[in-house]
Protein 1
Amino acid sequence: MVPPVVAAPLLLGALVAAVLSGNSLCWGFFWVLLALTVVAVIVLAVAMMYVTVSLKVRWIEFRPLGTPAQVVIARFLRSSTMVMADLQRVVVIERLSLGQRRSIKVVLHTGSETVECEPGTFAPFSRVDAQALTGWLTEQLGQVQVAVERQTEVKRDFLRPDEWWTRSYTAELWRVSVGEVDDMAARRGVEIYRYTPRAGAMSSPGTSVTVYDPGRAHDVAEELRAERAAGQAADSTAGPGPAEDDATDSR
């Protein structure tokens, strides 16, 4: 976007001058400037793609396995080697959204830089269990005394109101009636947002829609599920079975 923004005043001025004067030289200058702008956009786009791909880490390898002495970091067209003594800690970061895995990456921390390795969405590594990966890294790096950590990043900045949940969807998720949603949201600390949709702002100005924060609403759904499971388990163990009733009657 930089070349069009920079060239826009020049293009506009050249176009106005060419239209008003009708001079072929002005028109020629305008077309040359437009062509240069298009070329600049293409060159910058290709350069940005190349820089992004070339800097992205494709894979990380410990050599040798079991007692690694160095770390090989492979990028698009080159690879670099890091001695194990420079590696301070390794962090496995798992990003979650509404209880679902969105991405995972491994971050190597040294004294001078941070190396991030994040697989593509459909890469096999993206489906690796974070706990299992942390355990494997701990096993590999334990003998060289490199700390391995696991962190979880939960998305909570959902776009309001587009990504927030409606009352009916929230009621279905919580397994309650629609009329109970507002009261439960107040008791459980779920943020709500009331607004008038643009489509109904003119035709029905008094009509408002209430939506609920998905992050906290999802946590409440998990809490309710656990509470119901605990209640069912308590009921099954508290009540005597038919055999015990018969035994009590016979005595």
Note: The longest helix spans residues 24-55.
Protein 2
Amino acid sequence: MKGLDELLIALVDEAITLDRRTKEDKKRLDEIKAQLTAQATTVMDNRNLKYYQIFGHTGRFNVSFKEKFEIDRYSVLKAILGDLAEGKISKKEDVKYDAEPKFKAALIALFREDYSQAISISTVLEKLGLEKAAIKAVAKKLKGDYISDKKLLESVGAQGDLEEELDAIRQYKNWEAVNRFFAGLSDEQLTEIKRAIFVEDGIAVGLDYEK
């Protein structure tokens, strides 16, 4: 029994040591993330970016603005959009509405007026030095998502931070979505749609590295 008691004592002591270390490590990790987030959001605000990455030697720290989306007046959307609203929006049991991802993204872009066709995707890709054949192939794969689009551009030889190019791509893809769902609506109808939903900004952060 003495041997067992000593083993249990040792395990308790080791568990306490690990627990203390975990709490200390978490505290330090939270401090580091806060510093990185503060630096990233400053750059994002100054350059009007939605995504930003800070690179280390072994990985990167990703920061993005995320929107909290709510539908406040479904009846308004249904009255204006008809079958489109019924097909793209579902009612949950807790009396909340959830829209299909692409339709939600279009509503958020409309609400924030975060879309533009001023710079086309082909123009962005041309400025990056891609040939016509590559531009056509790459343009079909771009989604308006910072991480996946950056990996795609890097795979065809684009270099640099690419933040401004990726933001232009995102805004153009947003314009395509808004145009797809809401083309032909009057300014008054678009205003009513924006009044029927609510979007609140938040921050999402994460570390990206090989496990």
Note: The longest strand covers residues 59-71.
